[in-house]
Known about the structure:
By secondary structure, this protein is an alpha+beta fold. The radius of gyration is 16 Å and the shape is globular. Residues about 1-35 and about 40-50 have low confidence and may be disordered. Helices cover about 15% and strands about 45% of the residues. It has helices at about 10-20, 35-50; strands at about 20-25, 25, 65-70, 75-85, 90-100, 105-110, 120-130, 130-140, 140-145, 150-155.
Amino acid sequence: MINVYNHYAKVTEFQAVLKAITIRGSSFRPCGAPPDCLLWALLVGKINGEASMENINEIHWHDSEIESVIETPATDELVYNVRYPEDWSQNIFTAKAITFCGYHSHVVEEMPFEGSPTILAVSVVKREGGYTTVKLETNSGNRFVTAKSVHIGLRRASI
């Protein structure tokens, strides 16, 4: 039996192990379907604190540049592809995906803007019925996302 709550496991090793786990007779795919996504968020959160809305402050939102947003209704996901600040002192940004799982709604209240919006701050607006609404303040306005969990990981594209 694999102890998925092993705090010493590395996330990459954990992800490889998850590929072999089956749930309800089908292969486990992180964020492949709403239940899988929520389970993935909970399990990854146990290892590195990057998942669930309870740990939203573990993601360093400030100065993340939004490059694209992808909605996948079939899996209840909203993916923000961002340039994420890895090391400010060296001005190093990396491509990351911030994925909202159990996604319910997304509202954009921004003015016309040249270039990509940059996230300035994030705050929780409300929690209701298992969903959390977060406000993303950008340099061109505000965005509101309502979802069950969030995690940060490698960038991916989906159409």
